[in-house]
Amino acid sequence: MRRVLVFLACALVLVSCANVPQESLPVVVSVEKAPQQANNAPEPPANAEPLDIVRLFIKANADPRSGNAASRAFLDDKQRGAWRPNRSFTIIDKTFSTVYDPTASTGATTTSTPSASAPDPNVRTVTVRGSVLGTLSADSAFIPGSGPAEQTFQVRKQADGQWRISSPPPPVLLVTDDEFDGNYNPVSVSFYSADSGSFVPDLRYVPAKPQSGMPGRVMDLILQGPSAGLTGAVKNLFGDGVSLENNVKTNDDGSLTVQLSGLAGVGPETRSLIAAQIVLSMQTVTSTRIRLLADGAPLVAGHEYWRGSDLPSYNASSSPNGLMTVGGRVRSLSDGAPIAGAVGNGAYPVVSAAQSIDGKRLAVVEQDGDRVRLRIGDLGRDLPTVELGGGSLSRPTWRPAQSGAGPSNEVWTVVDHSIIARMVLDPNGHWLRQSVNANDLLALGQIGVLRLSRDGARVAATVNGQLVVASVVRSGDTVTLREPRVLQPGVLTDVLDVDWGSTPDTLVAATSSPSQPVQRLSIDGRRMDAYNSSNLTAPVRAVASAPSQPIVVADAGGLWTATELGEVWRPQAHTMQNADPFYPG
Question: Domain GerMN spans what residues (predicted)?
Answer without folding.
Answer: 215-303
